[in-house]
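ARCHIVE CARD
SHELF: 3
SLOT: left
DATA:
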Amino acid sequence: MMRRLLRIFASLAFAVAPICAQSQSPPAHAAGSYSISGVVVSALTGQPLDRVVVTLQNAMGESLVGQTETGSDGRFIFEHLRAGKFALSASRRGYIGMAYDEHEGYSTAIVTGEGLNTDRLTFRLRPRAVIRGFVSDDTGDPVQDARVSLYRIDMGSGLGNIVRAGNTTTDDTGAYEFPHLDAGNYYIAVTANPWYATRPQPRHDAEGNVLPDDQRSPLDVAYPTTFYADVTDSDSATPIPVKAGDQVQVNLILHAVAAVHLSVQLGLPPGRGFVMPQLTQEIFGVSEPAQTGMAYNWGIREPQGNSGQSESELGQTTVELSGVAPGHYSVELHGGGDSNRSAVIEAASDTHIDFSQAAGMADVSGKMVMDSGDKLPERLNISLRSSDGRFGGSDRVNDDGTFAIQGVPPGSYEIWVNAPDKSLAITHLTASGAPADGNTVKIGTASVVLNAGLVQGSATLTGFATRDGKPASGVMILLVPRNPAADRELFRRDQSDSDGSFQLNRVVPGQYTLVAIEDGWTLDWARPEVIAHYLPKGTKIIVPAQAKDYPVKDRIEVQAK
């Protein structure tokens, strides 16, 4: 059964109310002859845990059935229950509050009924982990107010992307801490500005050109973005493995280097107005704003007699960026229409960027319709995302289905659509101005027009997973579309409940393969080359159009990871 973490934390709010050693008297609607009982243990040591608040709710986590607190033996019990599905969760100071057998927001519901054993459960609660450390400079002095970013490998998308997991700043001793961490593989990045750094003002000649700085201050320095362990490129960063309950010390040293200055000629025609260029760097495949400590200065280049400047150069704005650490950057200018420009630079030394010569960015527009002819859902949104997590832009789709996204950097993007409380998929996509393959469009510098047909997923697919002929609890259930590479938005996941049952919601009509994988939560299951291993033993499913309830007749046999 799928349970969102928000509901788990909401359920823990009941912990502030008075609780007793046994479950509270059940509401009248819960009275019955079944029980749910077991023991809460540390996932790290296996030892029973006392003072654990155990909460029982209905299957959707919407109403409280009972609540209790474990004693020294770690045991809990809920009695007088009717046949049905229940959500079980637990919390204790120093441990991760979680649902029963939770994985990535999915958990196993406890199903009571004739012939079902719901006693002697083992609830493994994971102790919190901590990453802490110090940030210092190469003289050993602490770096105060450094921005420390935490990243982790996320399997929620099935691609093993690295995503941001938190931010903090160092105190006056250079210390930082990330508490309340679950087990996983993490990365750390630090950005800061040397407190003693100077940012000299650029000097210009009569024509507005920047004059060479022959006497650069030795204090004109910057810290490059630094990753553990002591590298300045995220591709070379070292992962930090963290197990449940770990106390990991990670110290980082920042090395001041001579700063570079960037002179950016915007290339906007006279009268277009001033637009600040955006300097970004790629961190784990995602564009992030460049490090702090930069200074911006700008001026308008005016005609100076018979200077020999072309008309297009006159009246243009030049922006000087100082305090930039050497490195690989992207510079983007969103001036609107054909003035959108982007440039990739390797800033090893002072660099001049002429945006009139830079590559343009594309405008992406188009129209969407429902294949059924129905009205489009309210608050429909379209977004462009690359497989590695880069964001290309988004727009709210108008009532007539039209949309427009301006200033999209060149690259390959998947087209995603979403609306509140709806499950939507693109059935066909055509593109002019760019090649398209399935739902992926390779965008260059030319304008692109898209036309897409949408279908809404409304089928509820139910079934049972078995292991050697017996109900299989807590396994990953995965519905795989016929074309996994092109239709990633059609995947559906769930975790089997204590009786082996599962439910996949908002399934889009089409052809699928249904698989159950033991401990499949660490797989890159969205990668075609990975999931292909499990498809031959899966169950073929065809979900017809307009289907609402779709029970799977055959039991799904669990496959080993």
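SLOT: right
DATA:
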Amino acid sequence: MKNKLYILLLAFGAIVFQACKEDELTANDEESNKMFMTMFRYQANTGNANDPKACQVVNTNDMYLTWYGVEGAVGYQIRMKLQTQPWDGPLMLDTVVGPDVLKMTIEDLQYSTMHSFAIRTLSPLGEAYHSNWYGYGDTGHNDERAEWTMGERVAVPDVLSVENVTETSMRIRFELGYVNSDPVFEHENGKFVMDEITVVPSATNSDLPSQSFKLTQEELDRGYIDVQGLTPNAVYVVNGLNNKIKRYWDRLYNTTMVRMKGTPGEPILIPHIVDTTDLAAEWKASRLDTILNNYMSDNTLAEGTVFLLEAGKTYYLHNSVNISKGLTLKSENPAKRAIVLMGIGVNPENQSPYAYNFSFGRNPEPGEMGGINIQSIIIEDIDFDAPYAVKYVKNNTTGTGNYFINQSSGAMPFSCESFEIRNCDFRRMTRGWVRFQGPNRKIIQRWVIDNCLWYDGGVYDNNGRGYAYIDGDRKNANTNVFNNLTVTNSTFVDSPNDHLFAEGTNLSWPASVTWNITLENCTFINWSTRSSGRLLFNMRYNPSNSRFTVRKNLFILTKADGDPRKLNMQGMNIRNYNGVVFDVADNYSTNTNLTNGQIFTANGFNHAKQGAGYRNGELNVGGMEQTEVKLGAVGISPTDLMVDPNPIAISGEFMHMHNLDGLYFKNTDAVRNHEIYKLGIGDPRWRRSVMP
């Protein structure tokens, strides 16, 4: 039955149409004799937000459409697309219904994704007389757009992961073990049901062939399949399905996006071209973020492309860089590092500094599913700085919330085979350094930090906290950013930030998640002294069978005579000892008072309940004795060890800053004869002045 309300509302238009219909039609009057345009029934044209008969999402991911009938129509044409796609591209639906059909339900649409709909009235006189489309409205005509977002799917079991990616092959691993706390997904004999895996090319290379694998019992028992015959540098979408389920989007488990390896070309030198803005000209800075972001979506450049920055030149970020593709970024001459500014200037509205950063992965586009799996991120021989970052001690308000890497809370699941940072300095990273966040899985299989320097960091607030240098997400038990992390030959100068490594939520870690963290030959000078409660290892709920290696590090607390500040420093909060191994040995300290070897004000490495001293050190490779931080046979003060190690000022803006040249070892017999020098303790860069 035709919608009488609609006919009353649009009676005038219908009368005009009927009058025109009585006239003789000619080839020149198509426009005046077009069918009247129907519309979807919803708030944009009824003004009623609570209309129970309006278009709406039902059953979480079904779309109920209803529209107004038009007298004389021979039917209606309905189209549907993803909101981000153009109307002249491939459509998800393009169908015609009869004149008496004024509603329809489109079932099983992609969860959490916005879809656009359009409709027109069909004339018995043919194409030229069909009505205009309703739903094609642009951003200036929102009432002529018809868009709805499907509901969110209940939490999906995270069963698929990809490893051993080459140019033409990959291994797809699946863990189907069912946990009672998981949402209601079909399971049999304690395992989720999955009978097929598909490998489909992404939209960026959609012309490539797909592959489908019906899983055998042998493969299900083994827990993985190997896929061959793929295309180098292409992106594929991997899905696991339970085909016993009728609705397609409910068949799927977690989706994984995989980029195949390719053969990178020659390194690309990013030319230093000073930007035209006043501040860029003042800093002689060349914009970098657009080039890197364009690379992420450029499939003509293989993953692993090497980008070179001109030696000694300054570049800057004007937007954040979302790393969704492996690359190397380094100075063309390691002896003359390039500089990258993490933003230039301040926001004129509120005078807050521009602070841009790198990010692991990216947010999903509408209609996009799965995670991002990349190979290597390598950053070498670059000095990073945030010159306009504001510290708490400068203005007694919260400092600038800047980072080197700050992952978006809505980022897609992310996995990286290798993340390597070598020979880099980080200055004025005020709130944190690398921060993970959000509910999705993050995995870094191998993380190497070597010969790096952090200085002039913080203060973010009165307690100097912010986030840890490496701050875990605390949300997903399948996350593992500490899988194999080594920090070597590096220095942390007077950091007021919170913790070094932190992952502090009690999660139900699967057996596959273990941590292997190595901290070796590093120097800490007045590290996190501003208040108590921060630690090097704030990892109370660590997974079982983890390993913590802490060797040959140098810890220094130092201040000038008359400096009233407290010097706090804390070590470990690790409490799960199931299968855990400690390798804590040959760590040394020097402090202003030289009271004893225990430089920590609390939670030393030798702590009996929260450190390597558990059960009198039986879990430590070198036993209880090695858990102690040593002074040496004859202690040496900071000022006897280094040229000028004390903070620049007792209070104010410079109270957490040091003269870096003052951190080199003195060339004296006392230094040369001390274990700190003879055993090569701490970051080797500060021993240069003593070396022959």
